[in-house]
Amino acid sequence: MGGAYFSQPWRAVTENYQENLKFVKSYQPQNQNVKHLRILIHGPVGSGKSSFFNSVESVLTGRVTGRALTDAISGRSFTQKYTAYKIHKDPDSFYSFIFNDIMGFEQKTNKGVDVEDVKLAMRGHLPDGYKFNPEAQLQETDEDYNPAPTLDDRVHVLVCVIPVASVSLISEEVVQKMREVRLAATEMGIPQLAILTKVDEACPKLKTNMNKVYTNKYLKEQVDKFNMLLGIPPNCIFLVKNYHSETNTKDDINALILSALKQMITFGEDFLNNL
Predict the structure, then answer these.
(1) 0.70 exceeded by the pTM?
(2) Could you give the 3-state DSSP secondary structure of residue 120?
(3) CATH of 14-274 given 3.30.750.200, 3.10.180.10, 3.40.630.10, 3.40.50.300
(4) For a tag on the chain, would you pick the N or C end, based on fewer CB atoms within 10 A?
């Protein structure tokens, strides 16, 4: 699996490393009604959503972090709450974007996050810290329901996360849930991207050199398959290796993460400016 390569990369990433890092570090929303750009991460159970946030934080702090707790063996969603993560720029300030992590999608109807709760989150009705109940979605009459969300409460970018090797294995039920969320986001005008994680597991030769990710033929095929599965354009689908076994950050891993992060911020800024 993943042994063949193109002679030239089908997407340029590494040469923009410092430029992307500078962009991310200097970003401030132009919309005066928003303090932070809100990025919602969703996907199947075990897809690497929490690990992706940890990897973004690792890139920006220069050290491998693990603030969003993860679990690789339970087979169930380890994230139980609607959790908002800010990243410290320095001891007194934060970066101007927030990541919201949610419970993962599962195949059964009464397991994993409810699609309707994800829609409520996108509209800003879910408070940070809300504990998901797969058997009962949040109602307008519930104490936790935010009846008057501000633009700051709403989601500005939707990001789907899935392991690259799972693209061909994902169940029809989970695809349907993700598709429903995507269509709801489209109705709200929310821009969408996708992150295909664990590229090193799909292509072991890449473990020592992430610079060849965008020359790999198998990975290109998975990007095209995911495009057909959810309808997200290929240029909005990014390949990433999350920090997992490493104890120090590496430029080739950082470059992939920064390329995706810059596009999230750019899309979210466009969304805010179009309101």
Answers:
(1) yes
(2) helix
(3) 3.40.50.300
(4) N
